[in-house]
Amino acid sequence: MLLLRAATARLQLSQSSLAARAARPLLASSSSYASSAPASLFASLRAMATTMGSPSIISMINQDHAKFKNLWNEYQGPNMNGEMKQKLGWALIREIAMHSSAEEEVMYPEIRKRLGDQAADMLLGQDGHQHIKDLLTELDRMTVEKDGEAAYTAKLKQAMDHLYHHIDDEENKVWPQFCALPGVDADLLSHLGKKFEGAKAHAVTRPHPWAPNKPPLNVIANMATAPLDAAADMWRFAGHPPTM
Ligand SMILES: [Fe+2]
Ligand SMILES: [Fe+2]
Questions:
Q1: Region 83-102: what's the mean pLDDT?
Q2: Residue 167 Cα, ligand 2 centroid: separation in angstroms?
Q3: Which of 86-95, 142-151, 217-226 has the lowest mean pLDDT?
Q4: What pLDDT sits at residue 235?
Q5: pLDDT in tens, 105-138
Q6: What is the distance in A from the centroid of ligand 1 to the CA of 169?
Q7: Rounded to the nearest 5 degrees, what angle is found at the Cα of 195, between the Cα atoms of 193 and 199?
Q8: Residue 195 alpha carbon to ligand 2 centre in Å
Q9: 127-145: buried (b, 16+ CB within 10 Å) or exposed (e) per residue?
């Protein structure tokens, strides 16, 4: 009986160390963007970054952010021709549109619900995603072939510069303050992660700066517009929109 208890304890110990090891890559990817957060806040944010169930919304959002940075680095890499840059530009437009749409359906309303509109406006900033959508709409009307590689890259750089500031704000200011609110725990973050995943599944894939950006109107507008974007993407990506 004693031997059985000792074996069970060893098994539980090795399971928890395996789980800790599995969680490490997600913690590492989100931690590199949060270097300016206070240590205690940063530690609590890291603790909430993954749960034993579904991934937390924080880790999902931050993984998207890392993906945008990787695509932009790839765009600026050596041996990239115009066609390759065009495909990466289109992929960035698609990924950023989906991400912004899901944040506006799930994360931002949750922040508003818990903070109230006035405090949420202060934390999120008045502009939100608007300027990024405006710039990506301009970019979406351009092509490398029609406007030239230099002009296309300059417009994309403008959008990415703004996006980098926005990402820095979200990861180092907005998420830490949200995670410190009463009632925000690992279960909630995991639940929101599931909702975020669902919102991305029916998200728009092009920027729509004139569309409503708050529930419930944004949800209705996204559902009505997403099929049109999907049809346009089938043409743009020759029947194979990227799945990243
Ligand atoms: Fe955002
Ligand atoms: Fe974001």
A1: 97
A2: 6
A3: 217-226
A4: 86
A5: 999 999 999 999 999 999 998 778 999 999 999 9
A6: 9
A7: 115
A8: 15
A9: ebbebbbbbbbebbebebe
For residue 169, pLDDT over 60 is answered with yes
* Nearest bound ligand to the CA of residue 111: 1
Question: pTM higher than 0.85 for the full model?
Answer: no
pLDDT of residue 194: 97
